[in-house]
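Exercise: predict the fold of this chain.
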Amino acid sequence: MFMFYGRALNSKLKWGGCNMNIGIVSRTFKVSLLLCLAALQSFVYAEPLWVFFKNNPARSIDKPLSAGYINEVTSTGAKIRTVSRYFHAVSVDWPGDPRILEHLPGVERVRPVKSLRRIHRNQVHLNLSKKTVSSQQDSTVLNYGTSYDQLNTLNIPAVHNLGYTGSGVKIGILDTGFNIRGIESLDNAHIEHTRNFIYGGEDVTGDTHGCYVFGCLAGAADGEYYGSAFGATYFLAVTDDPDTETRADVDRWVAAVEWCDSLGADIISSSLVYNEFDSIEDSYVTDDMDGRTSLVARAAEIAVSRGIVVVNSAGNEGLGKWHNITTPGDAEHVIAVGAVKYKNLDQPTLSLFSSRGPTADGRIKPDIVAPGEYIKVPRSGTPKDYLYVNGTSFAAPLISGLCALLLEAHPDWSPADIMEALKQTASDLGETGPDNNYGWGLPDAFEALNYSSVHVAQDNCPQGGECRQSSILKEFTLNNPFPNPFNSVVTIPLTVFSGSQVTVHVYDVTGRRITTLWNNNTIPGKYFVVWNGEGCSSGIYLIKAATAQNHEMKKITFLK
């Protein structure tokens, strides 16, 4: 019930206990009226919200948000949760009608904050005694104990033998909590920064999941256990608390990524994924897994564009109704990691729970796979015990550590260089060529460390000289041709990231151009160029894809 009293242009409105002046300034009236409506309708809207501000495209991501915009939001009583430079936005706790915030100066749109679904992980709690036999060879410098097999599947000990441990590389881990106190294998881990994005402060203890993930990377106890990058520097961020009813929200993941960026992280490792939520209307559908729809995918892409390698678990949806890749692993330049089982097998095989591709827009995912079953990790709450865990949650940090080894050896490599080195040196598993189960396959750390583009004499190089692929941010990636070797027709996959003129040529080993397969202005997307080698002699040929800025080469073998 409400009533007006007084003059029309100098009146007071009383509604549901709210009193406000009605004057000539219509915006003040409009906002005040909506605030009163919020008081009555707050029980309807109880979700956290993103408030996106109008943005100048020329604005630098490093520039702080306008204090005036933020003050307008807080003046309504909304409580700021996070501030995002990436998206020129704030997330807020606001129990009122979202339309109130939409009418504030500078606000472009308001959207609900979606919730995160933590990857389900299967943990086999086994106390590993020294009776457990390791298959470690005598040629390794370190004594890995029973962690040897999971690292050797990726040929990581061969890189450790060269002295690379991830030293000087900064890795941010986004997870549920890091209950690592008293674990001897993590006593000497170099933790430079910690942040709790749920409760604030620097205390990141609590859950065990982050402890296991951290152990895969940073553990070091000679004779018992080593992680993949035990010499790296770490930033630990808590973004999800599984032991409470607190929602694990997208804004905390985005805030943690921006925090890692501000600290100078080289790599971000995340074992958290997003797909289905509590309410149907807030859930993603598989058509959203296109690398552009979700805010976390977009945040990850921004981080990559700023030189950060982003590694994320593919998800454990392989046996479920969802089945496919989850976000942010659907993002084009995020290294999405599936899981394989490796114990007592001649060749690793895909874990049944590992999420499959393709993305909604038809791209191959996951990008690569790593051991994700029977993974040895330090047991939380004990000084020297270990246990086995399963899940893509533990495949991702093994790859993050491998990336750290590559960056230590090649500090000038970009995220695109890291991605290419992993893919092009991976062992092809499953069907021939990249596929939506294994991606490009199982990386080989030693081969990736020594990866370089093919050198070949070419038309635009000094006579007798060699051209080398540039390490600048790439406009495209020339993927592995298949089948290779081939006896008639070979398919050459080409992924274009930005619109540009792309040419694809075939050369013989003397540097002589055989044919031009492609010469087009190309929009971003996935392309398959086909070459029929009929009329050519058996032997080795080189495929070159090029733009005005860079080029890439692949070697193929023609067998008649």
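Check your answer against the key: Residues 476-558 form a domain with the Immunoglobulin-like fold (CATH 2.60.40.1930).
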